[in-house]
From TrEMBL:
It comes from Pedobacter psychrophilus. Keywords: Methyltransferase, Transferase. GO terms for biological process: methylation. GO terms for molecular function: methyltransferase activity. The keyword Lipid metabolism does not apply. PANTHER family: ERGOTHIONEINE BIOSYNTHESIS PROTEIN 1 (PTHR43397:SF1). InterPro entries: EgtD_Methyltrsf_superfamily, MeTrfase_dom, MeTrfase_EgtD-like, SAM-dependent_MTases_sf. Residues 6-310 form the Histidine-specific methyltransferase SAM-dependent domain. Pfam families: Methyltransf_33 (PF10017). This is Dimethylhistidine N-methyltransferase.
Amino acid sequence: MNKFLKEVLEGLNAEPKHLHSKYFYDEAGDKLFQQIMASEEYYPTDCEMEIFENQTEQLAKTLKNGFDGFDLVELGAGDATKSSHLLRQLVADKVDFNYFPIDISTNTIKNLEYNLPKEIEGLKIQGFNGEYFEMLEKTRQFSNRRKVVLFLGSNIGNMPVSEAWEFAKTLRQSLSKTDLVLVGIDLKKHPRVVRAAYNDSKGFTKDFNLNLLRRMNKELEANFNIDNFEHYPSYDPLNGSCKSYLISLKKQKVRIGEADFIEFEENEPIFMEISQKYSVSETDEMAKQAGFKPVKHFFDSKNWFLDAVWEC
Ligand code: AVI
């Protein structure tokens, strides 16, 4: 049984029902995510981009931290739009570094390896396609210098808090004394702003969630009727948890794969995604319990987003 089918069946047979948001990103999902990022209401991308555009020199200096050569590893590099500002600055400063983007998508890595050296002359790039920690180890076969790890875009927010804490611990254990991490984290802010970002007026986020049902129909021979489910976003300003659900609009039975059936009650939710928001002190706390030292905070002009520097 393929991993996608296995995890879908596990999630939909569990109580409460849930699906993994990592499966949002098929071709249609990638496109919808681009549309979300370009939407009026979705602020995290613009905020982090502002940090990378306006504070590039300080970022480069902080990451270099007085050391000569290093390997810049980016977890979940995507199209590297933000990090490319930093790469350009480091190349212009004649810093001796390798860029090692890691991504789960083969296409993403191929594109980066093809496009970035054309855009940034002199860039030394080697992509790695696979799981973060496995690939982080693999980079050591190419170069075993000091590591600077980028984990941007508030991807850490897509883990429940306990998982994010575990992730930070594992990351610290994979690194050594002079290594450093730059992690992008979306901050708690007025609940209205957060809610709007995950419920955009053009309906891209709604479609992004429903698209996972379409993907299951295509890839797992499921027979979801999309009209029977409604996107329901929520944000709790007390604990910073922003969650999305799909609500079953009626009692229904859905086939998945050749022989499995899942029953839904009327109004039963499927938990789809968490986009956790943190306070600055909560991010410092997470760093410390993992064995990092939080040493610097880069904010956008609205103080909505944080790029935090954690030393080992
Ligand atoms: C990729 N990730 C950080 C996005 C977020 O904000 O949680 C995914 C997303 N989901 C809905 N809108 C954007």
